[in-house]
């Protein structure tokens, strides 16, 4: 079914029930909502899903479709009817894929931004404890003195843990070598065992290894210090001004989803994000609840993320394999 045909079908359904768009939005949802996840943690959706089910009386179905860097889930979402009953949890990989992958869908034209859920989630620059560095400036100086000798791991080529390091490499003008691993656990283990010297992993699986001394943390990638690890400086304040990489996620819908449906989902998610128990649950898992945002603001944010990573790949000549 084409996008226009899907929209016409939805409109006819509304009219056949004698509902105005406002009434349709008021009654939405009348059946379970599916949220597709292309990889990584589904904790954000599960935390919110229970509350959304309580509020709407309809089940939130978490549909994990890992593989191909999240493109399998995104393709399913892009091809789904634009009626609000299929959503996709977008994250940094969504924007990064747009910067370098060839896909059957357009990351901007084929989706409607709905609401940002989490923002300012830090990645942490960690090194093996044997590396003679205690700060970002130390690391940059060491890398410049030993070009091509330091290696960094990532959980997947072209993903956040890879491109975070590529941005660092590009801005610091150093030569460090990418070693991709399969999954974040293996990538972190590569630093712990000394197979590689550094990495930019997400916080939750990394903090226990930092506390045990198996890893040394140098800085966080967010623009400001984070509540998760307030003792750590930012990369920007530690010698690389302007450096910023943040983890985030939010919901997008197939393009053409009625604005009144998008608005209702947006309003309900933002209402839940103000609740203390939701905020604490997100923080426990390394996420920070996003502040108020409209679908338009979230859409512009995604566009900026795509442009940022596309520019990095073009200017740095980053090879993704």
Overview features:
2 domains, globular, alpha/beta, D-Maltodextrin-Binding Protein, domain 2, 321 residues, 5-stranded mixed β-sheet, 42% helix, 6-stranded mixed β-sheet, 12 helices
Tell me what the structure shows.
The structure is a single chain. This protein has helices spanning 3-16, 21-27, 43-56, 71-78, 92-100, 136-145, 160-172, 184-192, 207-211, 259-273, 276-284, 295-316; strands at residues 33-37, 60-64, 86-90, 111-121, 124-127, 151-154, 177-180, 198-199, 216-220, 247-254, 288-289. The protein is of the alpha/beta class and 321 residues long. The chain has a six-stranded mixed β-sheet, sandwiched between helices. Strands 7-6-8-5-9 form a five-stranded mixed β-sheet, with helices on both faces. The chain folds into two domains: 3-121 and 246-313, Bordetella uptake gene, domain 1 (D-Maltodextrin-Binding Protein, domain 2), CATH 3.40.190.150; 124-245, D-Maltodextrin-Binding Protein, domain 2 (3-Layer(aba) Sandwich). β1 (33-37), α3 (43-56) and β2 (60-64) form a beta-alpha-beta unit. The model has no long low-confidence stretch (mean pLDDT 92).
Instruction: Please trace the helix and strand order, writing H or E for each element.
Output: HHEHEHEHEEHEHEHEHEEHHEH
Per CATH, the superfamily of the largest domain is Bordetella uptake gene, domain 1
Helix fraction, binned, reads 40-55%
| Number of E-state strands | 11
Count of discrete structural domains: 2
- Within the CATH hierarchy, at the fold level, what is the topology of the largest domain? D-Maltodextrin-Binding Protein, domain 2
So what's the CATH class of the largest domain? Alpha Beta
Rg from alpha-carbon coordinates: 21 Å
- Strand content is 15-25%
CATH architecture of the largest domain: 3-Layer(aba) Sandwich
Query: What is the strand arrangement across the widest sheet?
Result: 2-1-3-10-4-11
Helix-and-strand structural type: alpha/beta
Which regions contain 5 or more consecutive residues with pLDDT less than 50? none
């Amino acid at each position: 079914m084409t996008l226009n045909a899907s929209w016409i079908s939805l409109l006819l359904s509304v009219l056949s029930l004698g509902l105005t768009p406002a009434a349709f939005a008021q009654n939405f949802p009348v059946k379970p909502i599916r949220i597709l996840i292309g990889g990584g943690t589904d904790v954000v959706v599960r935390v919110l899903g229970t509350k959304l089910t309580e509020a709407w009386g309809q089940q939130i179905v978490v549909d994990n479709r890992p593989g191909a860097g999240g493109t399998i889930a995104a393709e399913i979402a892009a091809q789904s009817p634009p009626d609000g009953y299929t959503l996709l949890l977008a994250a940094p990989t969504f924007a990064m894929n747009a910067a370098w992958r060839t896909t059957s869908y357009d990351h901007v034209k084929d989706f409607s931004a709905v609401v940002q859920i989490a923002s300012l989630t830090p990645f942490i620059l960690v090194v093996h404890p044997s590396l003679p560095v205690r700060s970002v400036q130390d690391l940059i100086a060491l890398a410049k003195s030993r070009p091509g000798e330091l290696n960094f791991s990532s959980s997947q080529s072209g993903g956040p843990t890879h491109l975070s390091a590529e941005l660092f490499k590009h801005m610091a003008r150093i030569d460090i070598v990418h070693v991709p691993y399969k999954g974040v656990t293996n990538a972190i283990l590569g630093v712990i065992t000394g197979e590689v010297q550094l990495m930019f992993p997400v916080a939750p699986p990394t903090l226990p290894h930092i506390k045990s001394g198996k890893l040394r943390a140098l800085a966080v990638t967010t623009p400001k210090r984070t509540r998760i690890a307030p003792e750590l400086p930012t990369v920007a304040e530690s010698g690389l001004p302007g450096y910023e990489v943040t983890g985030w996620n939010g919901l997008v819908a197939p393009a053409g989803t009625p604005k009144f449906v998008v608005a209702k989902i947006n309003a309900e998610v933002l209402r839940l994000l103000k609740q203390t128990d939701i905020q604490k649950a997100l923080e426990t898992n390394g996420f920070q609840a996003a502040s108020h945002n409209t679908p338009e603001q979230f859409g512009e944010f995604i566009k900026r993320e795509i442009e940022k990573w596309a520019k990095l790949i073009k200017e740095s000549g980053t090879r993704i394999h």
